[in-house]
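new request in #modeling-help
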Amino acid sequence: MYIYDDFDQTVAKQRVAEFRDQVDRRLKGELTEEQFRPLRLMNGLYLQLHAYMLRVAVPYGTMSVAQVRKLADIARKYDRGYGHFTTRQNLQYNWIKLEQMPDLLADLASVQMHGNQTSGNCVRNVTADHFAGVIADEVEDPRIVSEVIRQWSTFHPEFSWLPRKFKIAVTGAAKDRAAVQWHDIGLQIVRNEAGEVGYIVFVGGGMGRIPVLATKVRAFLPKQELLSYLEAILRVYNRYGRRDNIHKARIKILVRDLGPEEFTRQVEAEWEQTRHTGINLPPEEETRIARYFTPPAYEAITEPVTAFEDAKKKNRGFAQWVSTNVHPHKAPGYAIVTISLKPIGGIPGDISADQMDAVADLAERYSAAEVRATHIQNLVLPNVKQADLLAVWQRLGEIGFADANAGLITDVIACPGLDYCSLANARSIPIAQRISERFADLDRQHDVGELQIKISGCINACGHHHAGHIGILGVDKAGQEFYQITLGGAGDETAATGQLLGPGFSSDQIVDAIEKVVGAYLDIRQPNEPFIATYRRVGPAPFKEKLYGTR
Amino acid sequence: MAKPDTGPKVLTGNLLRDGATVYYTGKDWSLYVTDAKVAATPEEAEELRKIGAAAYAANLVIDVNVVDVQSTPDHVPAHIREQIRATGPTVRRDLNKSMSPE
């Protein structure tokens, strides 16, 4: 993975010193809250319901063992012994004290981490496929270009005060695990007919109160021209994006208002001005960055791995876990492990300091010392030998993270909701917990099959409910928590916006309602047909009838 | 026409220094909503707002608000958001404080 050079490290240290001075001046009363708030937000520090919350950037979800251990240390030293992985591949701490922030940031900087650009109207932390570099069907490791974008966008002076926040996601494979069409800019690495590597460029996706899937503005952008093209998109947005209405300030509204053709025309015209001005990355610099993502030296292993195959036959629980949480690796004899942070009845994405340390130990021993965070609020060990899978599973069982539910109905995404978040209208986590408990039976989960439930506690949609096969949106109805159900959303290469099914349900009713939706699916599915395929085949009517038919 | 806003109210905010949720007691700030001074009239509520504005200007508290509470002896906040603010996340009872000092 990428290692800071002297320049990066100096920038990180200078930023800590700068914020230390800003905090000092704030505590002395030399800065007002109005002056200080944008400064703390630039460092990822929010005020939530109970305390300050710090959002730590995990660029493209990749962490070293040392970083995970430091995150555990910080959880113990400055927080209450745990953290929360978010749908942005980031980690949040919930109980931060302002007066301790400078020391905390210094600790983070010691492992090349920070909270920069995890808030504010700037280019946010870039996200990528959590299977980057280890999946067979990949054109190129998306972390390379993600790191290029990270460096380009860090403290970019022209794009530090955009009309609104700006999110970029990258996939290196046609199978989209990074939800690129839901981002302000989504990049898919492709090869053209001549065999050259470049990008499909999507612009103007976003969730929130106006969900919009991105428009494909370029079918093929040559790889070496990426930064000038990104610069052109950001310039058009920075110039014409609305600043008078926060709800209409995202680039998706500009693309909609101008129309995709006119927006694209303006970007291309801007690009003609900028592409020859030296913004593009020199090839040798890209080569330098790419070297950091050189795969580990894989052993030559002949498949099948007998011990692994035998263990599956002897241990049904292990076999079930392999079927959901282990993904084929590009190297024979290796595997990609998804660590479910969704134990039955647990808080999606939450992880204690001790669990972080245990994951770091596993990565060090079994996975080339690397851990990934996913936007589904799980972790990934990207480089595990098949022969080691049983030991990994057993250790995960000891720390409570061996649930065989990746991609199943209990692998629920949930934002922090009204339990923590000052923007929320309703709680998300308890709904996720109750759904998880209702469908706890593993055989039942495996029978229901692939099904993504995503829950947001308000219309800002941090829980990605628009992209859920079943989406749940919490609303405030006369002071009571109510929940609306959407169906048919998707975040992959078949991205779609979930459609509202009908009137909402009380907190007491919502889990029964979800069970009815699942029941309707089980009644009408065809053999081996996943939930989303059934919904696409039959539409909302059978589900509506099951839910509201007798109302 | 909107109904006159006459219910009991308390003044709340978060301490600048550590972010903790606190309530104005009439003299200082407490972690517990049951310690809060209750405004029974619109005039008393207005007085709380002024005190809150002054505490904000003095860099003691941020996110200062006057919020509705129930007409009960322990004046539990009226809205679920404020009930959760008063005690902590409902999904981590082990970390919660109670509404009043132990």
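bot summary: The helical segments of chain B are 42-57, 80-87.
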